[in-house]
Amino acid sequence: MLKYLKSILLIILLASCSSPGEKDHLRSKEITLQIVNTQEKNQHYLLTVTTDGTETDQSAVLPKSLFVITNENKEARVKLNLNSKYTIKAAKTPLTNIDEFQNKKKRGQKVAGPLLANVDFTPTKDTDTLKIKINNDNH
To answer: What pTM was estimated for this model as a whole?
Structure first.
């Protein structure tokens, strides 16, 4: 708990003391997450994107977790903090949007199949797309 409070105080202090030139390391960017190595058409995937957060002498990024569902092209766009390590997990899903996901999850219904990919990823300013390879389409 004390470590958590220290992190919050550090964030507040850094936000109030930093100048615009020092915020380059805090930038985020929209990245396309793309599923590859699959022959199935119109298959959607549930992507779980998590980070433990990062802390440097100048900034802190809080831990976060988000769910996204790929479109018919097996792609999803997410906004990620640059230079923060993320874990991205992929599983097939019969769902086509997050509203369906939330409704089924609330009712305790199954929202995804088994885990098909688990990727560690750190976006940089040069990153536009992360290709996530699904090695076994038999799941």
So the answer is: 0.75
